């Protein structure tokens, strides 16, 4: 029942070529930088995993995190709502060169599709994007006189998640707005991998305050002093 | 030796198949007994539809907290590492395939995996609760049941005659006489009471039993 | 911005004949007994509200709460998953006499329909009830080779909710398993009315621990020593 | 007197229509200025897509907490009575009709309420963010905008020519020259600069202005 793993390399084991990978975070808040960099380390050492489809609200910033995965050549496609950032060149260059795919999804639809994936809802209807280019080719339907677009669930082979507290059974809390997509992704992935600022014993997180119950979590690794994207950017770090 | 397993023994047998760390939902009533028989060294995490993970036994009488109940409205306690959540998240766990096993009681179960456990017909007040959700999504959906009805009719049948709870959803049956898997729309006999011949078992089963090379003995200790 | 109201009568003002009323709770846990009884008081004094459609997992127990509303003749229809209880006679007698309607909804579908109502999702697909009598007449569709039933959102004119803490802006916490349907109903109703064990100032509930944000809440009334259904049952209380 | 309102003045004007206790989402950039101009005695509660209600101003430089940001990825602070929630709950608030008003910037807005504010065409990297969700569900969807483009072309048009963000979603336009409601597929002029004649305004507007009996003066103090 103990879901802790000894180190970052063990945490990201089993993520293989061609997988769909969800990565928590909205910009830098909630970005699991150490897990991403551990995956890049493995790629540099072994050439794998590559050809990944990465799901995140954005498409990386600077030369770290998801941007560094793109720079390293690990990512075949991004699924996101806003592939722009303070320094979006990693994605932009490859996108304009036709070297990386993009599925653009409105932010609320992205969240709801991931939530549906975790909750066993194969499809739902949303007003968002009706009548726009983004809805082209999607089924539409009218309910109570208003038009909606049918959207499908989004699931992943694995998810990388940054939490604040984790207990050894995988119950999680988040820190402030770093929560964002992470509880949804934890539920939508087959293999949910968590870096937590602190790991505690079962019972040390009040059951009322658990945001992600351990049922959604497979592995937990402690990263006490996690990097924040903004600080890395300020310091000009390039990981790839 | 008894000619059939007691409900407690059926529950004991079902409990032997639950791995350490498994997430489990037990139906109201008889299936709840499964929790009592976790093998030593294994700890399952129990889920209840009304929003609790990792609950424990009933509290002593008089010490109930009526804000802390299970889906059967009985008072429960918490184990360390419990979590509360709302009903939509709770059934997201169910439908989303996050439970390792759901164990339910039944009126009838058919060789095609159909389950009928919510209604005995159009009389009275219909009530379905969470059963129609629970039969979808759990990695294994098992039933615990007497092999026959009180008047001796098979509960394992060719096709259900009562209103269905779910279509093609059951994967294993723990009965008072046998352990039977449902594979490719057939009953596959895995274990039977050693005292019973296959022909005797077939005679009280409503559809043909597929007989693999190895059929184990169904044995359970005296438990209650 | 202060959503507190002085008393229970003020709290339940504006619930009128023919409305759809969601009532939080699962059995006795989370049942807003005092709000329900305040509504019964108004009915006894004025003959209104009546002809209500009430949404709750159950259909009342004994002679209190929702059962007392049914006894009093205020309820035209129940929408629930399990209209049985320790003492279900209030509903059962009227149902068998054809004097009250019933829309039977699987419990997970009921929760998801209410969630959809609050979240602006007019319809979704679920595997629950496919191929059963409960799905008769509903659209079905196949996704990835599996069959699903289309379900519609469920909204209400008003919701009665029991919370543990409320701040004056309507942010709520719940107590243990009394959470159940309440956060969903709070979001799905036009007028969300809350009885809280304690009302505190804004800022006294940690923003991490808010379960229902105040945006979903219209009125809050303090009921410090709320009744628990089981205790009323044991004492043989009949309210209607 | 200036011949048009500054962005700050447009934001000031939009802020006057926000009631005490209103739940409000402000688009990234220019619309964010609306928060600065809440009238005395009124307090709106601001929502940001990434899961915060009731946030306040930016912290002083050097005191940023980068786990506490808004949808524009800028550091924010909290007011008493704030709440955190995940992205699905956040957009449930948006689509579910719980926001009283959403105020967005725009490239074009059409008399039928269509909005085009996310893409200037097929070049470059497309990015939509939360705009396509925000235009649905809020009780009022307003835009704040210069009345014309930098090269003098109308931004209020008969039909949008740029890729749409949403169909028939905008209810009010606060421009640098006027306040215009969209009703029954028409631009209805509510307020205009006193210094401007209706004919002058019509000349820089891409669709016909409906003129009600009462047209107010658009006035805003010198703010920045």
From TrEMBL, chains A, C:
Gene3D superfamilies: Glutaconate Coenzyme A-transferase (3.40.1080.10). One of its GO terms (molecular function) is CoA-transferase activity. It comes from the Bacteria. InterPro entries: 3-oxoacid_CoA-transf_A, CoA_trans_fam_I, CoA_transf_BS, NagB/RpiA_transferase-like. Keywords: Transferase. Belongs to the 3-oxoacid CoA-transferase subunit A family. This is 3-oxoadipate CoA-transferase. It comes from Devosia riboflavina.
TrEMBL record, chains B, D:
The keyword Transit peptide does not apply. Pfam families: CoA_trans (PF01144). One of its GO terms (molecular function) is CoA-transferase activity. The keyword Transferase applies. Keywords: Transferase. Gene3D superfamilies: Glutaconate Coenzyme A-transferase. It comes from the Bacteria. InterPro entries: 3-oxoacid_CoA-transf_B, CoA_trans_fam_I, NagB/RpiA_transferase-like. Belongs to the 3-oxoacid CoA-transferase subunit B family. This is 3-oxoacid CoA-transferase. It comes from Devosia riboflavina.
């Amino acid at each position: 029942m103990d879901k802790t793993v000894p180190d970052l390399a063990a945490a990201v084991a089993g993520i293989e070529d061609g997988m769909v990978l969800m990565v928590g975070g909205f910009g830098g808040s909630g970005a699991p930088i150490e897990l991403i960099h551990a995956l890049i380390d493995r790629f540099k050492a072994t050439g794998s995993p590559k050809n990944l489809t990465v799901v995140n609200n954005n498409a990386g910033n600077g030369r770290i995190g998801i941007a560094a995965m793109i720079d390293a050549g690990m990512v075949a496609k991004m699924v996101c709502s806003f592939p722009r950032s303070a320094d979006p060149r990693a994605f932009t260059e490859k996108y304009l060169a036709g070297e990386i795919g993009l599925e653009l999804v409105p932010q609320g639809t992205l969240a709801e599709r991931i939530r549906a994936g975790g909750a066993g809802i194969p499809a739902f209807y949303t007003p968002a994007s009706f009548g726009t280019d983004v809805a082209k080719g999607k089924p539409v339907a009218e309910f109570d006189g208003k038009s909606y677009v049918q959207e499908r669930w989004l699931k992943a082979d694995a998810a990388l998640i940054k939490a604040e507290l984790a207990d050894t059974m995988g119950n999680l809390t988040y820190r402030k707005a770093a929560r964002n997509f992470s509880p949804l992704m934890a539920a939508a992935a087959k293999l949910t991998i968590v870096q937590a600022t602190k790991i505690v014993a079962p019972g040390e997180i009040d059951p009322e305050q658990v945001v992600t119950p351990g049922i959604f979590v497979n592995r937990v690794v402690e990263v006490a002093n996690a990097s924040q994207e903004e600080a890395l950017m300020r310091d000009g770090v390039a990981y790839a | 030796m008894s000619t059939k397993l007691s409900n407690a023994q059926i529950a004991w047998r079902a409990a032997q198949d639950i791995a350490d760390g498994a997430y489990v939902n037990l139906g109201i009533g008889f299936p709840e007994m499964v929790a009592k028989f976790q093998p030593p060294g294994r700890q399952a995490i129990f889920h209840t539809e009304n929003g609790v993970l990792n609950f424990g036994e009933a509290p002593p009488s008089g010490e109930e907290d009526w804000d802390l109940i299970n889906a059967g409205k009985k008072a429960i306690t918490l184990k360390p590492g419990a979590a509360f959540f709302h009903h939509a998240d709770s059934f997201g766990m169910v439908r989303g395939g996050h439970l390792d096993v759901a164990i339910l009681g039944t009126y009838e179960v058919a060789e095609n995996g159909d389950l009928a456990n919510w209604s005995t017909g159009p009389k009275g007040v219909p009530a379905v609760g969470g059963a129609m959700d629970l039969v979808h999504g759990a990695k294994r959906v098992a039933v615990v049941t007497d092999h026959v009805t009180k008047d001796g009719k098979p509960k394992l049948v060719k096709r259900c005659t009562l209103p269905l709870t779910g279509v093609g959803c059951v994967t294993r049956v723990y009965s008072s006489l046998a352990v039977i898997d449902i594979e490719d729309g057939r009953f596959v006999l895995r274990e039977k009471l050693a005292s019973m011949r296959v022909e005797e078992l077939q005679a009280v089963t409503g559809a043909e039993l597929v007989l693999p090379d190895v059929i184990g003995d169904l044995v359970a200790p005296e438990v209650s």
